[in-house]
C-alpha cells in the first residue's frame, strides 16, 4: 500500500505529490536494501533490512521522487 502524500510536496513546484505505482518487467517489487542487518536469526546470517519503495510524481513538472517506507 502506498502512503498518503499529504506531507510530500514537489521541491521544484511546491504542489502536492501524487502517489504512483512502480513495477518491474518481471513483476518483482522494488525494495531499498539497508546496510543494517535484520534482527534475529536472519540478521545474524547477514541478511540486510529491506524496505518497500513508495514513489510519488509531481502533477506539474513530472518530477518523480522515491521514499523508502521504513514502517515495513
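^ C-alpha cells above, recovered residues below v
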Amino acid at each position: 500500500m502506498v502512503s498518503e502524500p499529504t506531507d510530500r510536496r514537489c521541491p521544484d513546484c511546491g504542489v502536492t505529490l501524487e502517489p504512483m505505482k512502480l513495477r518491474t518487467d518481471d513483476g518483482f517489487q522494488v525494495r531499498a536494501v539497508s546496510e543494517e542487518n535484520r534482527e534475529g536469526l536472519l540478521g545474524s546470517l547477514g541478511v540486510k533490512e529491506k524496505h518497500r519503495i513508495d514513489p510519488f510524481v509531481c502533477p506539474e513538472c513530472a518530477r518523480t521522487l522515491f521514499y523508502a517506507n521504513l514502517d515495513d
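The first strand starts at residue 18 and ends at 19.
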